[in-house]
Design goal:
The protein has 11 helices and 16 strands. Strand 12 and strand 13 form a beta hairpin. Helix 1 crosses helix 3 and helix 7 packs across helix 8.
Length: 481
């Protein structure tokens, strides 16, 4: 993932180095270690160091902002070092562009925002000892062990394990997660393997059939069909950033008895059709936040007929409330089917139906089974999971702390997923054509788009123009970043 800040003036490198040091002390400053015992999960441990700030003082022309941002998306290998990297460049208009790259293995978009929020708030206090932190200093902090998430498997009792510096990563919900219990490193692989094997043995019962009235979580997944247009065997990823007034966007959605999220999903789908996509039904992947409700709204049990934990009966993923501190990955993927020409009311109903049936492991097959499979088999078993024609990720509102970097006001903030090192062959085999990421920044919505089909989106400029034309056709003003 990548977060981007653009400021109106020059940001002091010393300030950014302090941010790096603060980030290194949090959830991003960790690396992944392989378990010693079959069945144990990969663990995250303090990295003990951080990548130095990459700061370019030579001014960058504004038309090259997107290209520079793409170039910062270099591979991060969290098995060898920390899962984040901060870089910055001065702009020709006198401002600064800052990029934070983060491995999705460690956290999701809301977890990333929370980590940056914490770092920026702490940067206003006494500076840390430096960006290069010792493992001993990390090991004294409270850390976490992961469960398998709300889609299946066991919950972890945080009171039953002593706090330590090791966190466990679970891939049962197709994305790693960090939850709220800790375990000591010594002997933790054996304990974790016993838990995994026990859960699989107790939960693996495909011969019993599906439970009465249970919903098959795979029923909403569209199967690949021959009607999908083929991708070219060459090309590259393209990107665009646009912003629109939030009040005008919300008013337009409300006029159709819809929500801002409905309008977002419909807009991304229509941009894909505007590009020449010939299929009349688009399948959209919708990530949903599964974190616990805020204290004022106690968590409830999720039944097969209920949507994941969100503000029901809305079609909008739950927004992180003030005071929440998201950590790790806590997402479910849902699938909505959208017909060409559908109005916002129909799109809203499609999103509601999707949230009622999140993807997950088949009934009677515990997600923990993936931990027992060899790496190649686990990869094949999850290949293409969550992939559909478009991805629409509504990240939510940016914390107020991110609207500035120290004394420097942010002209804009954006977030997106990136694909460092992807080859034309890998790009050719992806089903997803277009990804959209919506972020509310102050009184504006920031829409980041990533084109994954070179035939439909051959250039950044073409993708940007399609987005502006689509939003303009709605009667709204869209501006490029």
């Amino acid at each position: 993932m990548q977060g981007l800040w653009r400021t109106a003036d020059v940001v002091d490198p010393m300030l950014l180095e302090a941010v790096v040091a603060r980030l290194a002390r949090g959830v991003l400053g960790r690396r992944i270690v392989r378990p010693r015992v079959p069945g144990a999960r990969f663990a995250s441990v303090p990295a003990g160091w951080s990548y130095p700030l990459a700061y370019r003082a030579e001014p960058l022309a504004l038309q090259h902002i997107t290209s520079w941002a793409d170039a910062q998306a270099r591979n991060l290998d969290p098995s060898r070092g920390p899962g984040f990297r901060l870089s910055a460049v001065l702009l020709s208009d006198g401002g600064t562009l800052v990029s934070l790259l983060c491995s999705h293995v460690l956290t999701d978009a809301r977890g990333l925002l929370a980590a940056v929020d914490t770092a920026l708030r702490e940067t206003a206090g006494p500076p840390p000892g430096g960006a290069a932190l010792s493992a001993t200093a990390h090991d004294t902090a409270t850390s976490h062990r992961a469960g398998t998430g709300p889609l299946g498997g066991h919950a972890t009792d945080s009171a039953s394990h002593p706090a330590a510096g090791t966190a466990r990563l679970s891939f049962g919900d197709r994305k790693p997660a960090i939850s709220t219990a800790g375990s000591t490193r010594t002997g933790s692989d054996w304990a974790d393997a016993r838990r995994t094997w026990s859960t699989v043995i107790r939960g693996f019962r495909p011969w019993r059939g599906r439970a009465h009235n249970a919903v098959d979580p795979t029923s909403s997944r569209p199967s690949p069909t021959a009607e999908l247009p083929a991708k070219p065997a060459y090309g590259r990823v393209t990107s665009a950033f646009v912003h629109v007034d939030a009040a005008a966007w919300d008013a337009l959605a409300a006029a159709s008895d819809a929500t801002a999220n409905t309008l977002f999903v419909a807009t991304v789908a229509n941009i894909l059709w505007d590009s020449g996509f010939s299929v009349d039904r688009i399948h959209a992947s919708l990530p949903v936040d599964l974190r616990a409700q805020r204290p004022a709204d106690p968590p409830r049990q999720t039944t097969p007929s209920d949507p994941p934990r969100q503000t029901a009966p809305s079609d909008t993923p739950r927004q992180t409330a003030p005071g929440d501190t998201p950590r790790g990955n806590s997402l479910a993927m849902c699938a909505a089917s959208i017909e060409r020409g559908a109005d916002l009311a129909a799109v809203r109903e499609a999103c509601r139906a999707a949230f009622a049936h999140p993807d997950g492991a088949p009934p009677g097959v515990p997600p923990e089974l993936l931990h027992l499979l060899p790496a190649r088999l686990a990869h094949l078993a999850t290949s293409g999971a969550g992939e559909r024609d478009v991805l629409c990720s509504n990240i939510g509102r940016v914390p107020d702390s991110l609207l500035s970097l120290g004394p420097h006001r942010a002209l804009g903030v954006a977030a997106r997923a990136v694909h460092p090192g992807i080859t034309p062959r890998q790009l050719h085999h992806l089903r997803t054509r277009l990804s959209g990421y919506l972020l509310q920044v102050g009184d504006h919505y920031r829409l980041a788009l990533v084109g994954l089909d070179a035939r439909l989106f051959p250039s950044d400029t073409q993708l940007r123009d399609l987005a502006i034309e689509r939003i303009t056709a709605l009667g709204l003003r869209a501006d490029a970043w």
